[in-house]
Amino acid sequence: MSDDADPPDPAARRIPAATTPLARLRGREEWKFFAVLPRASRPLCTTWWVLTVLRGVLPGLFTVTVAALVSAVDRGAPPTAPILAAGAVFIAIQLLAPVHGQVSVLLGERLSRWLHDRLLRATTRPSGLAHLESRELADRLTAARDFDLGIAGPPMDISMNIVAGGLVGIVSGLSQAAVLVEYAWWAPLLLGGAWASTHWLLRESSIWGERDEGEVREAQRHAEYAYRQAVDSAAAKELRLFGLSEWTVARFTASRERLVDLRWTATRLRRKPLRTVILVLVAANGLFLWTLARSAQSGTVDVGQITAFVQAAMGTSALAFGGLSWALPPAAHSVDTVLALEAEMAAVGDLDAGAPAPVGASVVAAPGLAGAAGAAAHGSAGAAGAGVTLRLRGVRFTYPGSTRPVLDGLDLTVEAGTSLAVVGVNGAGKTTLAKLVCGLYRPTGGVIEADDVDLRTVDVLDWRRRVTAVFQDFIRYDLPLRTNVAPLGAPDAAITAALAAAGADGLTGLDTPLGRGYEGATELSGGQWQRVAVARALCAVGQGAGVVVLDEPTAQLDVRGETEIFERILRATRGCTTLLISHRFSTVRRADRICVLEDGRVAELGTHDELMARGGRYRRMFDLQASRFVAEETDEPVH
Ligand SMILES: Nc1ncnc2c1ncn2[C@@H]1O[C@H](COP(=O)(O)OP(=O)(O)OP(=O)(O)O)[C@@H](O)[C@H]1O
Questions:
Q1: Is the CB of 300 within 6 Å of ligand 1?
Q2: Global ipTM
Q3: Which of 331, 383, 551, 604 is close enough to 375 for a disulfide, judged by CB 3.0 to 4.6 Å?
Q4: Contacts for 268-274: CB closer than 8 Å, 24+ residues apart
Q5: Which of 134, 430, 472, 583 to mutate to test the pocket of ligand 1 (most atoms within 8 A of CB)?
Q6: Which domains does the chain show, CATH number per domain?
Q7: pLDDT at 9 over 50
Q8: Nearest CA to ligand 1 atom 13
Q9: 42 CB-near residues (< 8 Å, 6+ apart)
């Protein structure tokens, strides 16, 4: 097989340009925007369109009723019916406007919700992680979220209102232009064409087009990043300690100013076309009004008709450039990006995208899963899942977008039910190895086998049910302790047993929320949180996981706590296959075997005693840490 193939470039996955006019129309962002509205809410969308057409037609009707009134007065006929009709139309115009506004806002909110659902699906569904680490996709995600962030354009509920106003203008302009047909066939074409040309001449969206999109996205990304730093509590300590508050605000302001500049440039771009627009409008309206005046002089139109035609000529101006050209492009762009992201993220993030399973292989259940289900049924922390033998053969791995292999021909076997510690300098690839074993990435070369079954042929979700882990950057859920230990639920007995095994019993009640997000919540220390994360992994073991990956699980614990908890972990995971990553040799030495990772391969492998006797890298690292440790904490022997 071909190893270290270049990672897929998401930008290369764009859909080819459509060729037929209909396909081109359907490919337009504006088309897609209107096409998704019924999916956000069919009743609201129907009401919105009905109100749009009604509000568009009513001004034309008002013109006709007023003209009828003037004619009646001119002829000396009773004016009651035209007065009542004009009054009814006027009241309808006044009433429908706020109702339409409210419906627009509601529809905009529904659309936002629908887009959020799609975005969450796009980011969480792919089985791997590469889509979240791609800069190109991260930028597109930021652009897509603008309907929510409102950085480059108004938020969706406001956009929807502006779009509604713009569409009403177009329908009403057309209905007024239609009145002019009675005067002359060319009049609606002349005036309608002149006013409509402003949409084309004054398009400000050019600045947000392909040419400048990169700049806009970069400014959006920087603005969002600075904003997050300012509002997230995680960054609060360093911002204050290093005196970075003003600096962060300045960075946010600079990015926002850049966006405003880009928009101002777009506005300036309109200066030249503006002269043309004024010329076109003056010429068209002048020609029409001059012709109408001559008709009035010659007596070919009566006073009622003159009233109607002048009013209709003015009403046709509703066709002119307005909010539609301003609000629709960014809103439609967000929708288009959200729709495209689902496929693009899946193409990059799905583990099997572009990497077909070996010929003749079919997807099978994870090894030992039957045993896991049995253990899960018991629901006790003691019923550990069966371990599997993990075998890595010539494993290579290069991160997407990088050219440097992190793992480069790694051969390693961890026998079922044993523990293996992995040590190595920072950046040696220990966490990467853990992520590969967890099935979060596929190797770019070589094979990982579980009980002699190639993991590429195993359903990744099945496999992940067999594996549990404590990562360095584990999640601290702002939720009750119970949910933190068993997010998908488990019997209380299993949760309590897992907490006890992690030395976290007595921390707080199972129903007490952790973190600051809830009333009556308890805030834990770093070490206490780490015990909760360990309990989560041990609870999964009780539920049937047989492979345990521990990436610096005790880094935030004091030395006594670390020794004690690791003993507990080993006891609770007896029978499991355990991969331990740690820089603390007092923990590492307790593993059945230890491997030293260097240059993407195994440099040394053996038990603690074997490696010490060999006097190689492991021994040097161990002695270095032991001597420092003894110097600093003479009362705490390491051997
Ligand atoms: N998501 C990523 N994208 C690109 N490169 C990455 C990514 N994660 C890690 N790397 C690179 O891969 C290499 C190995 O990283 P890894 O986190 O596996 O090292 P480690 O041995 O666990 O280090 P440490 O002891 O510091 O935790 C590093 O050079 C790192 O820069």
A1: no
A2: 0.97
A3: 383
A4: 269/204, 269/206, 269/207, 270/202, 270/204, 273/201, 273/202, 274/202
A5: 430
A6: 19-182+322-349 (no CATH), 369-632 (3.40.50.300)
A7: no
A8: 427
A9: none
